[in-house]
Amino acid sequence: MELNELIKMKGSQKVTMLTAYDYQIAKILDESGIDMILVGDSLGNVVLGYEGTKQVTMNDMERHIAAVARGVKKAHIIGDMPIASYNNVSDALKNAKKLINAGAHSVKLEGLNPEVIRALVSSGMPVLGHLGLLPQTAVDLKVKGKKRDEADRIFSDALELDKLGVYGIVLECIPVGLAKKITDNVNALTIGIGAGVHCDGQVLVINDMLGMLHNHKPKHVKQYVNIYEVIKTATQNYISDVKGEKFPTDEYSFH
Ligand code: KIV
Fold first, then answer.
1. pTM for the whole thing?
2. Given this structure, which CATH class describes domain 3-224?
3. How far apart are the C-alpha atoms of 198 and 178, rounded to whole Å?
4. Burial class (CB in 10 A: 0-12, 13-18, 19+), 184
5. Residue 195 Cβ contacting ligand 1 at under 6 Å
6. Residue 238: per-residue pLDDT
7. What is the pLDDT of residues 209-218, one digit of tens each?
8. Is the pLDDT score of 176 beyond 90?
9. Is the Cβ atom of 80 under 6 angstroms away from ligand 1?
10. Which of 65, 140, 177, 211 is the most exposed, fewest CB within 10 Å of its CB?
11. Could you state, in order of their start, the residue ranges of all structural domains in the chain?
């Protein structure tokens, strides 16, 4: 989907975004009509089994963006820039181009780094910002912007990102009122995750919304299915069939 079409949705219809990290899931999301797919560096925790996102490399992101891109015909694909890939202007420009070459249509980076964002935007790169809880550098996973000074800083960072020309801003785990104030005062699309209903769009980590992890449900996540139980039951049925010689029957055999 063209970025212009997405930007025009501000104020008229909500933008839908989910993360994806592989070909098959990306294809399902695309065929379901999702507007945007984020190949997030949450790849680190949910797919690669790391504690967080810090260990995710450019090679990881390029491989998974390419896999997602092979499954997508319509949705706008965002490539997340891993930590340390945008420490300075020249790294940011070089690495953002790599993510685009891998199949992303735009890039996302956390926080406010005016020099880097200005350089990316002036080079013609579509940039999605990210404020509030910033997983790459966060010391805890608490809601951000509950205190006045923190809320003021997030608000002024959002205005600054908007002025720098980002096309959107992910707002992660901030109070509903602050997200509304930002949404009402920027031209950029606001995409909320744990930021309430007033954002221009919503994003969730696909593994969270599918209920992939046992006993793990952050407050902001709505689980649409319990895939953990679905996979576990199917696996247990398979084990029982194989052990009991009920699979493969003739139906699944060649003669
Ligand atoms: O990496 C990611 O999945 C993200 C979302 C939480 C927005 O940045």
1. 0.97
2. alpha beta
3. 10
4. exposed
5. no
6. 98
7. 999 988 878 9
8. yes
9. yes
10. 140
11. 3-224, 227-255
